[in-house]
Recover the amino acids of this structure.
């Protein structure tokens, strides 16, 4: 078993913990509603936590899905494939988005939260180009079709991760500013 397979199994184990924590946080929020009847900013906070909790659980599911591709791989992914698809850039950007959204929540900083939107645009751009890039790659690397399919699926999952993190940023803004940004184009 290689190092990547071990990491993939660790992510799978932690994803199960994330699922358990989601249930606990949901229950805690339900208890806050029942026992304290929060209003104004306190109500927005509990509502935001409920939605953020769901987004974080989905990110755990997505990470687990990506790790399944790594565990199934018979060897390392082709370096050219990783470069032309920009999947490493997507991964790095996704991690940065998660770090920033955590900082935005911890520091109650909507400026940091709004910075997430631009990073999500980068993930959307890479995802939008993925089909053409993979198609061109496969024409010259026909032996790597399976890897290419795993990579395009990973790209889709990383793009979805960006959407989930963006949702968390929107909830932070809702909690702090009482502004609903869902379904509103961000400028």
């Amino acid at each position: 078993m290689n190092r990547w397979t071990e990491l993939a199994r660790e992510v799978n184990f932690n994803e199960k913990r994330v699922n358990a924590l989601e249930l606990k946080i949901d229950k805690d929020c339900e208890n806050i509603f029942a026992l304290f009847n929060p209003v104004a900013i306190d109500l927005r906070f509990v509502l935001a936590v409920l939605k953020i909790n769901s987004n974080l659980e989905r990110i755990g599911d997505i990470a687990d899905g990506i790790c399944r591709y790594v565990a199934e791989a018979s060897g390392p992914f082709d370096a050219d494939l990783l470069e032309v698809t920009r999947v490493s850039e997507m991964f790095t950007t996704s991690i940065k988005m998660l770090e920033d959204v955590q900082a935005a929540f911890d520091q109650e900083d909507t400026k940091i939260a709004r910075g997430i939107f631009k990073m999500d645009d980068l993930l959307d751009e890479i995802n939008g180009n993925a089909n053409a890039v993979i198609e061109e790659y496969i024409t010259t690397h026909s032996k790597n079709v399976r890897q290419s399919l795993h990579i395009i699926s990973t790209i889709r999952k990383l793009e979805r991760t960006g959407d989930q993190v963006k949702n968390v940023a929107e909830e932070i803004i809702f909690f702090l500013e009482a502004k609903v940004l869902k379904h509103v184009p961000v400028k």
In short: The first helix runs from residue 3 to 36. Helices lie at 3-36, 40-72, 79-85, 87-107, 110-140, 145-177. Residues 3-177 form a domain with the Methane Monooxygenase Hydroxylase; Chain G, domain 1 fold (CATH 1.20.58.220).
